[in-house]
């Protein structure tokens, strides 16, 4: 007779994030980003949906060439405004407890979030540790 073993999947389920945890998570991420990644982004975008926390970063775009502006039929100001408001998706965190989150890294090759491990080799960590993984896009 087959035996079934219950296994927790860190990339499904989770708990709805309470408002107090949402506010604390935003503060923690902003403090961590400012201390460790200052100058690599202009602002962070942190949004929540159910048990999920999405972390995006906004950066200053590179100066466009005249040929690029001509091919896009845009002015420099239009180009810069558009790309300043375009987020760089870093990662998605799934909430289980205040310091127990799972991580999904955004892959631009297929434009979706893929399950990932934290640097400690486990599937659970803190929001700051998740930001460190996603920050590779801020190089």
Characteristic key phrases:
alpha+beta; 139 residues; single chain; 5 strands; 5-stranded antiparallel β-sheet
What does this structure look like?
- There is one protein chain.
- With 139 residues, the protein is an alpha+beta fold.
- The chain has one domain (19-138).
- Helices cover 31% and strands 27% of the residues.
- It contains four helices and five strands, in the order H-E-E-H-H-E-E-E-H.
- It has helices at 19-37, 66-72, 76-84, 127-134, and strands at residues 43-49, 52-58, 88-97, 100-107, 112-116.
- A five-stranded antiparallel β-sheet has the order 1-2-3-4-5, covered by helices on one side.
- It is elongated.
- The N and C termini lie far apart (54 Å).
- The mean pLDDT is 93.
Summarize the structure.
The chain is an alpha+beta fold. It has helices at residues 19-37, 66-72, 76-84, 127-134; strands at 43-49, 52-58, 88-97, 100-107, 112-116.
SSE order and pairing:
Blueprint: H1 19-37, E1 43-49, E2 52-58, H2 66-72, H3 76-84, E3 88-97, E4 100-107, E5 112-116, H4 127-134
Q: Please, what is the average pLDDT?
A: 93
Q: Could you state the oligomeric state of the chains shown?
A: single chain
Strand content: 25-35%
Number of domains: 1
Radius of gyration, taken over Cα atoms and rounded to an integer in Å:
18 Å
Structural class: alpha+beta
Number of helices: 4
Shape: elongated
Beginning-to-end CA distance, first to last residue:
54 Å
- Number of DSSP strands? 5
- Strand order in space, largest sheet: 1-2-3-4-5
Order of helices and strands: HEEHHEEEH
Q: Return residue spans where pLDDT drops below 50 for at least 5 consecutive residues.
A: none
Biggest sheet record: 5 strands, antiparallel
How much helix is in the residues? 25-40%
